[in-house]
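hiii, so i know i said id send this last week but things got crazy w the move. better late than never?? heres the sequnce for the chain we talked about at the cafe, plus the structure i predicted for it. fair warning i was half asleep when i ran it
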Amino acid sequence: MRPRLKHTPAPSAQSVSLMEDSTDGDVILQSPVHPATEGEPLILHCLYHPLKPSNLTAEFYKNESLLQTQTTGEMTIRTVSKSDEGLYHCKHTEKGESPQSWISVRGSNQSTNQTTEQKQGVRS
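okay and structure toks below
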C-alpha cells in the first residue's frame, strides 16, 4: 500500500507546514515539508493516530540506526548540519513504527549570501 501524505500546521509558535507520511498504521513521524536550514533547530514529532502528541516513549532512527529515545515523543536537533540529512522514522514498542521520511538540509542564508558575494567580487 502506498503512503498517504497529509499537511498539518506545526505544533509550535512558528507557522510551518509539516509533512506526515502515513499509511493506515497508527504511528506517524511529523517532519518539515521543506529542507531544514543549516544552523537552525529541527524538531521531529512521533504521533499516534488520531493525530495527538504521543507523550509516550518513542525511539527515533536515522538511516535505520537508533539516534535517541524520548519520553515526550519529540526529538530536537539543536543545530542542523548536512550530516543530519537522511531517512528518519520513529517507533513505539506497542503502537508500531512510522514510515520513513527523508529529511534534507540546505545551506544557511548567511553562507549563501557569502558565496554570492564571493562570486560577484564584492569587497567589504
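btw The first helix runs from residue 109 to 120. thought thatd interest u
miss u guys!!
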